[in-house]
Specification:
11 helices; six-stranded antiparallel beta sheet
């Protein structure tokens, strides 16, 4: 793990307003820099500092009540805006875009198999888990086929594959949902575009009839 990756993970777990968070992260960056200038190795420094979430928890415990309330309100807003990331482009054939473009498409509201509210809430749950880096819990929601794909394409590397630092989420567009019929199989698909500070990303997320995560695509 690099210094910036460590600092970013600490920042994600801090429960305070942006100004206070910036102050904490700048001090953390300075502390690591001083240790490096003394000739110490980065892995040893980070090991002594501990798990990023645990370190952030220590900072959170020392925040006053109002600071923590402001931070939690902002964190909750980010969770609502945050959207699930994606896999390699090759996954599109098996999962997202192909199903989206097939001709036998109908409105999710008319479905006999899916509830629109459930599809939306399941999509939001996938989004939340990815945003919080809860990869194990996310994989537990996946179908057998998707878990096989994830063995070759680990979730932690997806953001880097898409390209660089996306920045914080700014806004999420309308979510379009549909029911797809293909080869006697039925899927629910949700598509949405999310604007981040540095990039716009369009996601297509699919669920099978058991509401297991069956496919997703990003562009």
């Amino acid at each position: 793990m690099t210094k910036q990756q460590y600092i970013k993970r600490v920042g994600r777990a801090l429960e305070c307003a942006p100004a206070k968070k910036g102050e904490i992260l700048r001090q953390l960056d300075s502390d690591i820099g001083i240790a490096l200038s003394e000739g110490r190795e980065l892995p040893k420094i980070l090991e002594e500092m501990g798990n990023p979430r645990a370190l952030a928890g220590e900072f959170n415990e020392n925040l006053d009540g109002e600071e923590r309330r402001r931070g939690r309100r902002r964190k909750w807003a980010r969770r609502i805006l945050c959207i699930f990331g994606a896999l390699l482009a090759a996954l599109a054939v098996a999962a997202g875009t192909v199903y989206w473009m097939l001709p036998k498409m109908s409105a999710i509201e008319d479905s006999r198999y899916f509830d629109a509210a459930k599809v939306r809430s399941s999509t939001e749950e996938v989004i939340r888990l990815f945003g919080e880096e809860e990869y194990g819990a996310l994989e537990a929601l996946a179908s057998r086929e998707m878990r096989e794909v994830l063995e070759d394409t680990p979730l932690p590397g997806i953001r880097d594959f898409i390209g660089g630092d996306w920045g914080e989420p700014i806004s999420m567009g309308n979510m379009y949902m549909a029911e797809i019929h293909e080869r006697n199989r039925v899927y629910a698909t949700a598509q949405v575009t999310v604007s981040y500070e540095n990039v716009n990303v369009t996601y297509t997320i699919s669920f099978n009839r058991q509401m297991e995560l069956y496919g997703f695509y990003v562009r």
